[in-house]
Design goal:
heterodimer; A: alpha/beta; Rossmann fold; 5 strands; B: alpha+beta; Chemotaxis protein chec; 7-stranded antiparallel beta sheet; globular
């Protein structure tokens, strides 16, 4: 499960969010067992002003590791609660196998402090709790992708 | 609202405040993720069966099942709103959208319970489609239920808890 989408949507909000100050033409991987949520995350990232040139998708951590073996990405977003391999184990394996050096941001309903601390201790660079707005995504993501 | 201080302390559910928290949790999810407002329906009857039932299990200090039930029309509208597409363009994915909706409401609800919620885990959602079925929960504790109005359509949100 790894469709690559072109830049079918231009970043109309780029100027508003001063996209010139952040990384352009981002290659992203979105990991979530819900295809609807993957689309919502992608839309929110574009609304937040990110210039996504490639969007790869995976339904769980194991699929995501396969994608990372085939494609280089700049930014990874991952759910925690997923079948087969959950998001925490995925982050652990990305770090231990050096599957990618891209920052991993968790986007999940599991928002307790212990979950956040565990994800960050495993190497995640950010944490967004569902439900979220595009503004919240921007607030959490832009510091990570700023050059 | 009363929260437990240890796992051995029985969970005491204040029906009124928990129902208000459940409604607030749902309202926030609908506003942030679907871009629309919902309101509690005061005198709506609980249906025997609905076309869609999405369930999320809770385990830990808060143990039970949260379910979201609705008609096919409501499920289509939820999906269309989540994907930001016209309802005519929704081909499939209603079960997926309903599962995520239940997951976010459950997660948002437990996040509001501080001590109890921080020691509670959610399952991956399960969604039943079709009208000819009955669900039988093995929970034996409190039931917190609310009916909301979404785009003039009723949706039922139920939290069934173990003692």
């Amino acid at each position: 499960m790894q469709p690559v989408k072109g830049r079918e949507q231009t970043t109309q909000t780029a100027d508003r969010y001063q996209i010139g100050e952040v990384m352009n033409q981002l290659r992203t991987l979105i990991v979530d067992d819900s295809s609807v949520m993957r689309k919502i995350v992608e839309r929110s990232l574009r609304q937040a002003g990110l210039d996504l040139v490639e969007v790869h998708e995976a339904g769980n951590g194991a699929e995501a590791l396969t994608v990372l073996g085939q494609h280089q990405v700049d930014l990874i977003f991952s759910d925690i609660n997923m079948p087969v391999m959950d998001g925490l184990e995925f982050v652990r394996q990305v770090q231990s196998t050096k599957a990618s050096t891209a920052p991993v941001v968790m986007i999940t309903t599991e928002g307790s402090e212990s979950n956040v601390m565990q994800a960050l201790s495993l190497g995640a660079k950010g944490y967004i709790r569902k439900p979220f707005t595009a503004d919240q995504v921007k607030e959490h993501i832009l510091p990570i992708v700023e050059r | 609202m009363t929260t437990t201080e240890s796992s051995k302390t029985p969970l005491i559910v204040d029906q009124a405040s928990w129902k208000a928290l459940l409604e607030l949790s749902a309202q926030e999810v609908f506003e942030m993720m679907l871009g629309c407002r919902i309101a509690p329906l005061a005198d709506a009857r609980t249906p025997g069966t609905t076309d869609f039932t999405a369930m999320v299990g809770l385990a830990g200090k808060l143990c039970g099942v949260l379910s979201v039930r609705c008609s096919t029309r409501a499920a289509l509208l939820v999906t269309a709103k989540m994907l930001a597409v016209p309802i005519e363009e929704v081909e499939d994915g209603c079960w997926d959208a309903l599962g995520e909706l239940a997951n976010m409401i459950a997660g948002n609800f437990k996040a509001k319970l501080s001590e109890v919620g921080s020691h509670c885990l959610l399952s991956v959602p399960t969604v039943i489609t079709g009208a000819d079925y009955q669900t039988h929960s093995l929970t034996n504790g409190a039931v917190v239920e609310t009916t909301i109005e979404f785009e003039t359509l009723p949706m039922w949100i139920t939290l069934e808890l173990h003692n």
